[in-house]
Amino acid sequence: MGRYIIAPSILASDFSCLGAEVEAVLSAGADFIHFDVMDNHYVPNLSIGPMVCEALRKSGVTAPIDVHLMVQPVDEMIRMFADVGATYISFHPEASDHVDRSLQLINELGCKGGLVFNPGSTIEILKWLLDRLDMIVLMSVNPGFSGQKFITQTLKKIHLVRDLIDTGSREILLEVDGGIGVENIAEVASAGADTFVAGSAIFGSQDYASVISQMRAELEEVVSL
Protein backbone atom coordinates (compact mmCIF):
# COMPACT_ATOMS: atom_id res chain seq x y z
CA MET A 1 0.00 0.00 0.00
CA GLY A 2 1.20 3.51 -0.77
CA ARG A 3 1.40 6.41 1.62
CA TYR A 4 -1.37 7.18 4.03
CA ILE A 5 -3.46 10.33 3.59
CA ILE A 6 -4.90 12.42 6.42
CA ALA A 7 -7.87 14.57 5.44
CA PRO A 8 -9.13 16.90 8.19
CA SER A 9 -12.83 17.71 7.90
CA ILE A 10 -13.45 21.43 8.10
CA LEU A 11 -16.93 20.73 9.46
CA ALA A 12 -15.24 20.59 12.89
CA SER A 13 -13.18 23.76 12.38
CA ASP A 14 -13.79 27.30 13.63
CA PHE A 15 -15.80 28.86 10.80
CA SER A 16 -15.16 32.37 12.09
CA CYS A 17 -11.59 32.03 10.82
CA LEU A 18 -11.84 29.23 8.29
CA GLY A 19 -9.03 30.38 6.02
CA ALA A 20 -6.61 30.49 8.93
CA GLU A 21 -7.84 27.09 10.15
CA VAL A 22 -7.20 25.50 6.75
CA GLU A 23 -3.78 27.10 6.49
CA ALA A 24 -2.91 25.92 10.01
CA VAL A 25 -3.98 22.33 9.47
CA LEU A 26 -2.09 22.08 6.17
CA SER A 27 1.01 23.55 7.82
CA ALA A 28 0.56 20.93 10.55
CA GLY A 29 0.93 18.14 8.00
CA ALA A 30 -2.52 17.40 6.57
CA ASP A 31 -2.67 16.07 3.02
CA PHE A 32 -6.23 16.84 1.87
CA ILE A 33 -8.96 19.20 3.00
CA HIS A 34 -12.27 17.36 3.44
CA PHE A 35 -15.58 19.10 2.72
CA ASP A 36 -18.79 17.72 4.25
CA VAL A 37 -21.58 19.14 2.10
CA MET A 38 -25.06 18.70 3.61
CA ASP A 39 -28.39 19.84 2.20
CA ASN A 40 -30.85 19.36 5.11
CA HIS A 41 -32.62 16.90 2.81
CA TYR A 42 -30.49 13.83 2.26
CA VAL A 43 -29.14 14.33 5.80
CA PRO A 44 -30.73 16.29 8.69
CA ASN A 45 -28.21 19.11 8.70
CA LEU A 46 -27.10 22.04 6.54
CA SER A 47 -23.45 22.90 6.03
CA ILE A 48 -21.24 24.49 3.38
CA GLY A 49 -21.51 25.01 -0.36
CA PRO A 50 -19.27 25.66 -3.36
CA MET A 51 -18.63 29.31 -2.47
CA VAL A 52 -16.51 28.15 0.46
CA CYS A 53 -14.43 25.95 -1.83
CA GLU A 54 -14.05 28.84 -4.26
CA ALA A 55 -12.97 31.20 -1.48
CA LEU A 56 -10.29 28.80 -0.26
CA ARG A 57 -8.91 28.35 -3.78
CA LYS A 58 -8.85 32.10 -4.30
CA SER A 59 -7.01 32.51 -0.99
CA GLY A 60 -4.22 30.31 -2.31
CA VAL A 61 -5.07 26.82 -1.05
CA THR A 62 -3.52 24.34 -3.50
CA ALA A 63 -3.94 21.10 -1.52
CA PRO A 64 -6.43 18.53 -2.84
CA ILE A 65 -10.00 19.33 -1.80
CA ASP A 66 -12.00 16.19 -1.09
CA VAL A 67 -15.74 16.92 -1.41
CA HIS A 68 -18.25 14.56 0.19
CA LEU A 69 -21.72 15.32 -1.14
CA MET A 70 -24.51 14.44 1.29
CA VAL A 71 -27.09 15.92 -1.05
CA GLN A 72 -29.90 14.78 -3.30
CA PRO A 73 -29.96 15.12 -6.30
CA VAL A 74 -26.22 15.25 -6.94
CA ASP A 75 -25.48 16.24 -10.53
CA GLU A 76 -25.92 20.01 -10.29
CA MET A 77 -23.83 20.14 -7.11
CA ILE A 78 -21.15 18.10 -8.88
CA ARG A 79 -20.99 20.77 -11.58
CA MET A 80 -20.84 23.59 -9.06
CA PHE A 81 -17.96 22.09 -7.05
CA ALA A 82 -16.04 21.10 -10.17
CA ASP A 83 -16.27 24.71 -11.36
CA VAL A 84 -14.65 26.06 -8.18
CA GLY A 85 -11.70 23.72 -7.82
CA ALA A 86 -12.72 20.46 -6.16
CA THR A 87 -10.23 17.63 -6.65
CA TYR A 88 -12.28 14.63 -5.52
CA ILE A 89 -16.08 14.58 -5.56
CA SER A 90 -17.83 11.66 -3.87
CA PHE A 91 -21.55 11.00 -3.47
CA HIS A 92 -23.92 8.39 -2.07
CA PRO A 93 -25.20 6.03 -4.79
CA GLU A 94 -28.76 6.14 -3.48
CA ALA A 95 -28.76 9.93 -3.97
CA SER A 96 -28.33 9.63 -7.76
CA ASP A 97 -30.89 8.32 -10.22
CA HIS A 98 -28.08 7.23 -12.55
CA VAL A 99 -24.89 6.45 -10.62
CA ASP A 100 -22.73 5.61 -13.62
CA ARG A 101 -23.79 8.81 -15.38
CA SER A 102 -22.99 10.92 -12.31
CA LEU A 103 -19.53 9.36 -12.11
CA GLN A 104 -19.01 10.05 -15.82
CA LEU A 105 -19.97 13.68 -15.19
CA ILE A 106 -17.36 14.04 -12.46
CA ASN A 107 -14.66 12.71 -14.78
CA GLU A 108 -15.80 14.84 -17.73
CA LEU A 109 -15.51 17.93 -15.55
CA GLY A 110 -11.89 17.07 -14.73
CA CYS A 111 -12.35 15.77 -11.18
CA LYS A 112 -11.77 12.39 -9.55
CA GLY A 113 -14.90 10.47 -8.64
CA GLY A 114 -15.92 8.49 -5.61
CA LEU A 115 -18.83 6.69 -4.00
CA VAL A 116 -19.79 6.89 -0.32
CA PHE A 117 -21.41 4.08 1.66
CA ASN A 118 -23.33 4.56 4.90
CA PRO A 119 -22.83 2.08 7.77
CA GLY A 120 -26.01 0.21 6.79
CA SER A 121 -25.51 0.38 3.01
CA THR A 122 -24.57 -2.59 0.86
CA ILE A 123 -21.43 -2.38 -1.29
CA GLU A 124 -22.81 -4.70 -3.98
CA ILE A 125 -22.87 -1.91 -6.57
CA LEU A 126 -19.07 -1.58 -6.45
CA LYS A 127 -18.42 -4.66 -8.57
CA TRP A 128 -20.03 -2.87 -11.53
CA LEU A 129 -18.30 0.48 -11.07
CA LEU A 130 -14.69 -0.11 -10.03
CA ASP A 131 -13.41 1.07 -13.42
CA ARG A 132 -15.08 4.45 -12.81
CA LEU A 133 -13.76 5.12 -9.32
CA ASP A 134 -10.80 6.99 -7.87
CA MET A 135 -12.05 6.80 -4.28
CA ILE A 136 -14.36 4.68 -2.16
CA VAL A 137 -15.55 6.24 1.10
CA LEU A 138 -16.88 4.13 3.95
CA MET A 139 -18.83 6.03 6.57
CA SER A 140 -17.98 4.81 10.06
CA VAL A 141 -20.71 7.00 11.55
CA ASN A 142 -24.15 7.86 10.24
CA PRO A 143 -23.83 10.94 8.03
CA GLY A 144 -24.96 14.38 9.08
CA PHE A 145 -23.11 15.36 12.24
CA SER A 146 -19.55 15.83 13.44
CA GLY A 147 -18.13 14.24 16.59
CA GLN A 148 -19.81 10.84 16.51
CA LYS A 149 -18.31 7.59 17.80
CA PHE A 150 -16.71 5.14 15.36
CA ILE A 151 -18.96 2.19 14.45
CA THR A 152 -16.69 -0.85 14.82
CA GLN A 153 -18.73 -2.96 12.39
CA THR A 154 -17.18 -0.78 9.67
CA LEU A 155 -13.91 -2.69 10.06
CA LYS A 156 -15.45 -5.75 8.39
CA LYS A 157 -16.62 -3.64 5.47
CA ILE A 158 -13.15 -2.10 5.10
CA HIS A 159 -11.66 -5.59 4.73
CA LEU A 160 -14.24 -6.48 2.07
CA VAL A 161 -13.68 -3.32 0.05
CA ARG A 162 -9.89 -3.61 0.30
CA ASP A 163 -10.10 -7.14 -1.12
CA LEU A 164 -12.32 -5.88 -3.93
CA ILE A 165 -9.93 -3.03 -4.81
CA ASP A 166 -6.97 -5.39 -4.78
CA THR A 167 -8.60 -7.67 -7.35
CA GLY A 168 -8.34 -4.89 -9.93
CA SER A 169 -5.50 -2.85 -11.39
CA ARG A 170 -6.97 0.62 -10.88
CA GLU A 171 -5.56 2.85 -8.15
CA ILE A 172 -8.48 3.63 -5.82
CA LEU A 173 -8.23 5.38 -2.46
CA LEU A 174 -10.12 3.71 0.40
CA GLU A 175 -11.23 6.49 2.71
CA VAL A 176 -12.90 6.04 6.10
CA ASP A 177 -14.94 8.92 7.48
CA GLY A 178 -16.19 9.28 11.05
CA GLY A 179 -14.84 8.84 14.55
CA ILE A 180 -11.19 8.55 13.49
CA GLY A 181 -8.58 9.51 16.07
CA VAL A 182 -5.14 8.65 17.37
CA GLU A 183 -6.57 5.76 19.38
CA ASN A 184 -8.06 3.84 16.43
CA ILE A 185 -6.37 5.02 13.22
CA ALA A 186 -3.92 2.09 13.26
CA GLU A 187 -6.74 -0.44 13.55
CA VAL A 188 -8.57 1.19 10.65
CA ALA A 189 -5.39 1.17 8.55
CA SER A 190 -4.74 -2.48 9.39
CA ALA A 191 -8.20 -3.31 8.04
CA GLY A 192 -7.20 -1.82 4.69
CA ALA A 193 -7.93 1.92 4.67
CA ASP A 194 -5.36 4.36 3.32
CA THR A 195 -7.17 7.70 3.65
CA PHE A 196 -8.58 9.02 6.92
CA VAL A 197 -11.08 11.80 7.54
CA ALA A 198 -10.61 13.28 11.01
CA GLY A 199 -12.58 16.28 12.18
CA SER A 200 -13.01 16.68 15.92
CA ALA A 201 -9.84 14.71 16.69
CA ILE A 202 -7.76 17.37 14.94
CA PHE A 203 -9.74 20.62 15.08
CA GLY A 204 -10.87 19.91 18.64
CA SER A 205 -7.27 19.77 19.84
CA GLN A 206 -5.00 22.60 20.94
CA ASP A 207 -2.12 21.45 18.75
CA TYR A 208 -2.99 20.26 15.24
CA ALA A 209 0.58 19.30 14.41
CA SER A 210 0.89 17.14 17.52
CA VAL A 211 -2.28 15.18 16.73
CA ILE A 212 -1.34 14.66 13.09
CA SER A 213 2.17 13.62 14.15
CA GLN A 214 0.70 11.08 16.58
CA MET A 215 -1.53 9.74 13.82
CA ARG A 216 1.48 9.38 11.53
CA ALA A 217 3.36 7.54 14.26
CA GLU A 218 0.46 5.10 14.68
CA LEU A 219 0.35 4.55 10.92
CA GLU A 220 4.10 3.93 10.81
CA GLU A 221 3.58 1.07 13.24
CA VAL A 222 1.13 -0.49 10.75
CA VAL A 223 3.62 -0.12 7.91
CA SER A 224 6.35 -1.83 9.95
CA LEU A 225 4.22 -4.91 10.74
List keywords for this structure.
alpha/beta; TIM Barrel; eight-stranded parallel sheet; 225 residues; single chain; globular
Explain this structure to me?
With 225 residues, this protein is of the alpha/beta class. Helix content is 35%, strand content 18%. The chain has a single domain (5-224), classed as TIM Barrel. It has an 8-stranded parallel β-sheet with strand order 1-8-7-6-5-4-3-2. The longest helix is centred in the last third of the chain and has 17 residues, at 208-224. The mean pLDDT is 95.
Structural class: alpha/beta
- The CATH homology group name: Aldolase class I
Report the count of strand segments. Answer: 8
> Which second-level CATH architecture applies?
Alpha-Beta Barrel
Describe the protein's topology.
Blueprint: E1 5-8, H1 18-27, E2 33-38, H2 50-58, E3 65-70, H3 75-83, E4 88-91, H4 99-108, E5 112-117, E6 135-139, H5 154-166, E7 173-177, H6 185-191, E8 195-198, H7 200-203, H8 208-224
Parallel strand pairs: 1-8, 2-3, 3-4, 4-5, 5-6, 6-7, 7-8
Helix pairs in contact: 6-8
Brief description of this entry?
The chain has 225 residues and is of the alpha/beta class.
